[in-house]
Design brief:
five-stranded antiparallel sheet; alpha+beta; single chain; 5 strands
């Protein structure tokens, strides 16, 4: 594994593009070696050269990291998540009905 702090765009010309997003790309270099290139317009291009084995090992770590991130984010987006200072609300309590409905219900009691 090698970190390449500055990589010229011409370096990747002619390499097989395997995958890309708006800021990253993976190129096949040959001999089961790959380049992960950060292609951000505002910064110099950087790259990480990985062996195929290294790529598999890192992908497993990235999957675990994404699961951690997802669990944390999903728990905050859950309807069961309470904002700071909120208290659990009893379902089926008087707060579930609009105020007018409670008055009508009370008026209809014998």
């Amino acid at each position: 594994m090698d970190f390449i702090e500055h990589i010229d765009q011409s370096t990747v010309e002619g390499l097989e593009l395997i995958a890309e997003s708006n800021q990253f790309a993976i190129y096949a270099v040959g001999s089961q070696t790959y380049l992960l290139v950060q292609r951000h317009e505002g910064t110099p291009w950087m790259a990480l050269r990985l062996s195929g084995d290294g790529l598999f090992r890192i992908s497993a770590l990235l999957n675990d990291t994404m699961r951690h991130l997802y669990r944390d984010l999903a728990s905050q987006l859950s309807p069961n998540h309470l904002a700071e200072g909120q208290h659990p609300r009893r379902i089926g309590g008087p707060d579930d009905l609009p105020h007018d409905a409670l008055i009508e219900a009370a008026d209809s009691l014998p």
